[in-house]
Amino acid sequence: MGGCCSSPKKELPEKKQIRLQQNQRRSFSIQQAPQPFGAAEAVSEVPAFSEFSFADLKAATNGFSSENIVSESGEKAPNLVYKGRLQSRRWIAVKKFTKIAWPDPKQFADEAWGVGKFRHRRLANLIGYCCDGDERLLVAEYMPNDTLAKHLFHWENQTIEWAMRLRVAYYIAEALEYCSSEGRPLYHDLNAYRVLFDEDGDPRLSCFGLMKNSRDGKSYSTNLAYTPPEYLRNGRVTPESVIFSFGTVLLDLLSGKHIPPTHALDMIRGKNILLLMDSHLEGKFSTEEATALMDLASRCLQYEPRDRPNTKDLVTTLAPLQTKTSVPSHVMLGISKHGETPPTPPHPLSAMGEACSRMDLTAIHQILVMTHYRDDEGTNELSFQEWTQQMRDMLDARKRGDLAFRDKDFKTAIDCYSQFLDVGTMVSPTVYARRSLCHLLCDQPDAALRDAMQAQCIYPEWPTAFYMQAVALAKLNMNSDSADMLNEAAGLEKKRQNGGRGT
């Protein structure tokens, strides 16, 4: 998969071509593939599944630095998982396999695409993969607030309150039911390390468990005491095996510690409910709800697979147990959440910066109309021979786009600017910035972000390109990234004022 810049169809002068190629390698946009497919619970802001280059992922993870490793434990979460950040400012989680685990690149790619089609608000969704030479990597949404294991077993400030534990059980059951209903009922090695918390503090099921750890290797890496009995017999994962593993997660939520299922079942049969419950809850739980959760765990942990409930039963049982439904997850977890309003940049903002920080699209439109094309100076070097009829048609398309843009006919402007850009003979950061705003005004923030990034590719130190990315990111609810872009744009403007290239 290439970067965000499309190479012009006609060759540019040598220096220009080299600069654009360098920017291609540095930039990485939200994919232009069709929107993700899935059931009614599709998550529209997740990029479409696609292939990444190894160079992009290496850059995103700072060379796969050990400081970027986010796996809770090598035993519990096999294969290394790294935190990374793409050029588009999107945070990602990258799972690195060995070539030995997946020697056949096509098989790895096919498995990854099979998982990549799923989109659900209860999943930490898979957004891509890399199969470059000997490299085998999966790329998923990054979940910034740790794992269930961390919050249950290694907490520092506060343990998870009872209502939140019920929410975790319910949300993960919803994730399993979605996968099952969409034809992917097998989940490998479900445990507390596979449950992750997103920026809102909501629990999500890691998509990595939907794919085996190797072509034909073990599907379970946890202690044998927590492994489904049928897996020990035949080494195969079945939908009923997933239910057994879900039962062990319920035990974790009840007890706040690892208890072997056989031991826990003995306690449940002996009615030793209080002995099983997590003492850190300090009695702040409903005995009736705890009994219902223990009963469900007991059913999930039955020795015979046919005696266990299915995923629909899990959801049906857990839904009525939900309390504090109006309280956000991050409040119950006791974690902070990024504010909705980006912080003020350290540098004074220009009129363009002020308009972008206010998300004032009307003011941005007026500024772009007034600025016209003066920022494009030096971005095109055309020879006399290139002034063909195609060139005249292309410039006519841009002129019609400019008229539509001035008259606020933004859909027509998008069509005309697209005709201009599709020819590829000229590159114009201003056209990309203008089309980016048109997309914003037509409620198409993904497309707006792509265009703003294309403008940056052509003119890497142009503040307007960064400002437009800031607005698009804010529209995508990526507020922290939007603030970063706003700061970067303001910094570039300050650099200009101190002697850099000006407009």
TrEMBL record:
Name of this chain's protein: non-specific serine/threonine protein kinase
Chemical reaction(s) catalysed: L-seryl-[protein] + ATP = O-phospho-L-seryl-[protein] + ADP + H(+); L-threonyl-[protein] + ATP = O-phospho-L-threonyl-[protein] + ADP + H(+)
Record organism: Dendrobium catenatum
Key words, A-Z: ATP-binding, Cell membrane, Kinase, Lipoprotein, Membrane, Myristate, Nucleotide-binding, Serine/threonine-protein kinase, Transferase
A biological process from GO: brassinosteroid mediated signaling pathway
Assigned EC number: 2.7.11.1
GO cellular component: plasma membrane
PROSITE patterns linked to this entry: PROTEIN_KINASE_DOM
Bilayer topology: Lipid-anchor
Protein's UniProt keywords contain Nucleotide-binding: yes
